Amino acid sequence: MPPVPGSLDVEAVRRILHHMDVVPDPDELSAGMLTAVGDGVNDVLVVDAPSGEFERFVLKVGTFSRTEHLRAGVAAAHALRAYTTLPVPAVLAFDPGSDDRPPAVATTYCDGTPLASGFDDVPNLTDPARVSLLGAVVREFAAIPPDAATGYGNVVREAGTEDRPRLVGETESFDEWLHSYATKHFESPAPHPALERVAPDALAFVDANRRRVPAEPTPSVLVTDLSPGNLLAPGGEPPATVDGLAGVVDLERAKVGPVAFTATNLEYLLTAGVDDPTPVQRALYEQLPFDHDHALHDVYRLAAVSRAVSGLDTWEDPDNDRFDRRARAVAREVEAIVD
Question: Residue 197 to residues 16, 243, 305: CA-CA distances in angstroms?
């Protein structure tokens, strides 16, 4: 595995590792021991020790994600390792960072290749075998005991014990959190006429349907950026079952919510812009105890779309034709739900 340069130089990595008890002497690290991996917004490095003084591990640095995002992922990893058999890497250390140092988390290394490369990798995002594995993973996200979570929404901290961790969400009721989440996004649409046009109707729909949303649904771990890219497998090929996965990774920004919202949010991410969503829906929901036309599908899908309404100018250059095409597609999605 040849070294690949990332945005962090070896001196920056040494400074970070001085605050994490994972290597004997960070100053002994050389650039050749660091391999940049992944294609996300944060720096992810595989750290090797050729002489064997420590085991290979993964260092994720919050280049873009904030401390609270990584902390939520750490809490979710603890819960999933405690209550499920998913191959979630163990957390070795977490550093919240400081004014002059980004947050970072060190985890055990999983020997596998992602089943997709970003949200532009449409063939792999929509491959039924990969989607079915995601559905099975989402089912496991819902396998945590009801008392393993308190509250809903963004995981702000963890409580309980090491053997019986408990996730703590930011709000007492799920309907309150979902209403706030969708409202926040629709109140700040990206600068495009189509998005600005549909935002008021979306806000009205969110308000009118709030009472349909349960206040205290059975909790599950919720990851709103989930895709086949979160799943690692030998050779990058989908195994027959989740037991064949090498890793389930990248849990930052984890939340607590009902599994139906997790699935609907995932369905949107995988089918946005797809002419025929049926194969994806079938593969995803065959692993779950409900179908894609469940009672709250419209409300949950609109909440899923809301993030694209506000965040599109972060993901795409507003001066690019791709931004215009995606904005119009997102607006049509909103109209199809609220009309």
Answer: 45, 46, 15
Mean of the per-residue pLDDT values of the chain = 95
Would you say 247 and 231 are in contact if contact means Cβ atoms under 8 Å apart?
A: yes
- Please name the residue that has the structure tokens 């409580």: 159
- How far from 275 is each of 200, 231, 278, 280, CA to CA, in Å? 27, 25, 9, 11
**Identity of the residue numbered 57:** F
pLDDT above 60: residue 2: no
The CB density around residue 43, as the number of other CB atoms within 10 Å, is: 23
Nearest to 130 by CA among 147, 149, 116: 116
Burial class (CB in 10 A: 0-12, 13-18, 19+), 206: buried
Mapping DSSP to helix (H, G, I), strand (E, B) and coil, where does residue 295 land?
A: coil
- 115-338 fold: Aminoglycoside 3'-phosphotransferase; Chain: A, domain 2 (3.90.1200)
pLDDT at position 191 is: 97
Whether 22 and 9 have beta carbons less than 8 Å apart is answered as no
**All CATH 3.30.200.20 domain ranges in the chain, comma separated:** 10-108
Tell me the C-alpha distance between 205 and 23, whole Å.
52
DSSP string, 159-224: EE-SSSEEEEEEES-HHHHHHHHHHHHHTS--S-HHHHHHHHHHHHHHHHTGGGS-SSPPPEEE-T
pLDDT band, residue 5 (cuts 50/70/90): very low
- Tell me which residue of 141, 115, 111 sits closest to 228, measured CA to CA: 115
Q: In terms of C-beta density within 10 A (0-12 exposed, 13-18 middle, 19 or more buried), how is residue 94 classed?
A: buried
The fold of the 10-108 domain, in CATH, is Phosphorylase Kinase; domain 1 (3.30.200)
